[in-house]
Amino acid sequence: MSTVKTFLLPDLGEGLADAELLTWSVDVGDTITLNQTIAEVETAKASVELPSPYAGVVVARHAEEGTTIDVGAPFLDIEVAGPATADPTGPASTDTADEAAADARPEPAVETVETEKAEAAPTRTPVLVGYGVAEETSSRRPLAAPPVRKEARERGIDLATVAPTGPHGNVTRDDLAVSSAPHADEERTPIKGVRKHTAEAMVRSAFTAPHVTEFVTVDVTPMMELLDELKASPLLAGVRVTPLALVAKALLIAVREHPSLNSSWDEAANEIVTKKYVNLGIAAATPRGLMVPNIKNAQTLGFRDLCSSLSALTAVAKEGKTGPAELADGTITITNIGVFGIDSGTPILTPGEAAILCFGAVRRQPWEYRGEIALRHVTTLSLSFDHRLVDGEQGSKFLSTVATLLSDPVGFAALG
């Protein structure tokens, strides 16, 4: 005897309400095994591969690629043999289908994961990590089939503004036709995924932490000369040595002397938390938007390992494959705007961090050197910091230490 189980989109443990389906890895009729990857979804933080909680045959897929699915909504129907149970090590499934039923296409032969438990227990609203139970009066997501949602997204139509005429209170294609569409000379891009998360985080940071930004312009000719020597060193053969790596090394040295720049504000405990480790964040422009993956315990790395870690981090980020673990628990960040030919900026803090160092373009320009005007390699560094955690003197001394190391990198003598 076989039973059709409905796998609900699980809470991915990030306190997020929905995810976008990027790609299906299985099709209707496929025979799949336990924990086989069935799809790749994108949350506001990272892309995640979903494993199947069952072995069996795929009966139905409840979403199309490119659509957004609510946590707890039906995702995949799998026909299993016998009284199969979900893999306890697999992704968690909600034990109620109240929210999911709105967008589902119920069929008599299909039962939801843990149906027996849901029927025996009082009905409740699914609770996401980091959130309480939603108010009963809160507005629900407008009902619409995936193709209708896709069309609305492409046309820039907010489904919440469309009057539904469908038999179950759902928005139809005809409803979209009579709704307000964007002007012909406008292009609209949905705000979702990483871009939505970044926007929310930056607003939260800007209006929570009192930002101060300081600038220093410095002659980094010695740094560039050292860079050429390091590239030719046999000890660093096979690794990519960049100016950013030297800036990162200077930052790590400066943090040892000025630990307040590597701290956070604990509002609940009314404490300042100074970190003894440095999870070095590197702001990266990726196909999915701005991301800040970090190198864990960067203070323990020699220069060769630091270069390798930077290269690996950048490569993964550019492919859009950075995972949640690499994005979590950063302590201080570098943003390299010099790669875009920009001289300086006033970066916004990564939420929860005390400081962010901005590295501008390195340019050859006239500079006073030993009493004469000469062409030198010059760059501008800017430092934004949380004035609750870092006062002006501490921020200035930190920035001065970084600038001094880059202009006279005698402290880098033992790099290897």
UniProtKB/TrEMBL annotation:
GO terms for molecular function: dihydrolipoyllysine-residue acetyltransferase activity. InterPro entries: 2-oxoA_DH_lipoyl-BS, 2-oxoacid_DH_actylTfrase, 2-oxoacid_DH_E2_comp, Biotin_lipoyl, CAT-like_dom_sf, E3-bd_dom_sf, PSBD, Single_hybrid_motif. Keywords: Acyltransferase, Lipoyl, Pyruvate, Transferase. Its EC number is 2.3.1.-. Pfam families: 2-oxoacid_dh, Biotin_lipoyl, E3_binding. CDD domains: lipoyl_domain. Residues 81-95 have a biased composition (Low complexity). Belongs to the 2-oxoacid dehydrogenase family. This is Dihydrolipoamide acetyltransferase component of pyruvate dehydrogenase complex. The lineage of its organism: Bacteria, Bacillati, Actinomycetota, Actinomycetes, Mycobacteriales.
